Amino acid sequence: MNEVFNEAKLAGITLNNRIIRSATHEGMSDENGRPTETFIKKYEQLAKGGVGAIITGYVGVMANGKSPAFNMTMIDSNDKIAAFAEMVKRVHAMETPIIMQIAHCGRQTRSKITGYPTVAPSPIRDGLYNEDRPHELTESEIMDIIRHFVAAVERGKKAGFDGVQLHLAHGYLLSSFLSPHMNKRKDRWGGTTENRFRIVKEILNQSRKRVGDYPMLAKINAFEKSADGMRIDEAVKIAKMLEENGCDAIEVSSGIIEDGFWFARGEFPFEIIAAENFRLKAIPRFLHPLVRTVLKKQMDSPQPYSLYNLESAQQIKKQLEIPVIAVGGIHKLAEINDIIENNRCDFVSMARPFIIEPNIVNKFREGKQLESKCINCNFCVIGIDARPFKCYYGKIEK
User: Which residues are tagged catalytic?
Assistant: First the structure.
């Protein structure tokens, strides 16, 4: 059996193989953000399907950072720990590790959803949600956000998660601090890479004092579409600073939400956008061809649809001692074998392939299948705004 399916260590966590379920918003929590029985069963299905480890969909650390997507999971209070502990217990019963991804959505949400103004390091309007300019966080508000992240790390440990992953990618709040495109501050939280990294450094260092050697991972962007966005040279620098400040492993991604389908490359799913988007629903159908042309130009993803973060991940891996996880357009067993056996990255993670086939790892291991059935239609990426995640296979149910 090849190296992909051998037992491996990730940040001290034992995995049965090197294929990880990357964070994927599930929309299966209740209205208060607690995981439901349906949600837990979905993770049991993944564990039965052979996944090496599960990284949860993003879990919110405070109310003003709640996602606009359907029923975001929240870890913003101690009374939610018990529900998460039940989730962990059920997944651990199948000998599968589970890592909680924690996040604050920053400007990439809607005040109608959170009940609060959107917030960001700088008052730069988001190009997709297009609300009023977000509130520029004050020094005391930044310190409060740091406290909420540290508390979330503690709660993750108390609930029994094998580790946590800080979501530093895709334009959410911590990502927006790191990005020169979204952070134009002139104080100690902006300007240089070191200053933009300061909020992450504080979260890591303060968390270490509370949780000791508990595994803390990070997901970062190596590239952003905007002319002044993240580029690989700076991503390498940030990855080094993460390692220096106690981060145990890094997953390498790209893109922010206003970039369109750069972070989840594939087909442009206009049909479901037109049917589900809170703004497009009001546009008459006879205008859809024009709207489609405009939006496609703005949001369409570039080719290739496969392995689009691998080169960046390899460059980062060359500079680090801690494990690096490649994510993005990994659908074929041959690709996974090549990445692992040739030491291009230490682990791989997938999101969309697990939506259509929760048991894809078992299929790979048993030789029943050589690639995912996912067609990169991206309907699942849009569908989560209104309902729990599912595979649409390029069609909206009538």
Answer: 172
